[in-house]
Amino acid sequence: MVTLFWLLAALVFYVYVGYPLLLHVWARIRPKRIVFQGAGGSDAEPSVSFVIASRNEGHRIPGRINNLR
């Protein structure tokens, strides 16, 4: 029973401390390069997608899209 307790305590520690620390170290060692390549060349703006969850709200969607622009 004591072994199970320490095993689960280690799992909780890993979830809250170990995994975020691992991600931080990994990001420091191998940073990701971000390259924006638009369809129209290097000066094109990046495309953006929005997901609008709605039900029976078809009449409000055009206004919401205008608001997002």
What does this structure look like?
- With 69 residues, the chain is mainly alpha-helical.
- The chain has one domain.
- It is flat.
- The N and C termini lie far apart (58 Å).
- The model has no long low-confidence stretch (mean pLDDT 86).
Short description:
The protein has one domain (2-68). Helices cover 52% and strands 0% of the residues.
Low-confidence stretches: none
- The total beta strand count reads 0
Strand content: under 5%
Element string (H = helix, E = strand): HH
Distance between the termini: 58 Å
Shape: flat
- Report the average pLDDT across residues: 86
User: How many discrete domains?
Assistant: 1
Instruction: Tell me roughly what share of residues is in helical segments.
Output: 40-55%
Number of helices: 2
Q: What's the arrangement of secondary structure elements?
A:
Elements: H1 2-29, H2 61-68
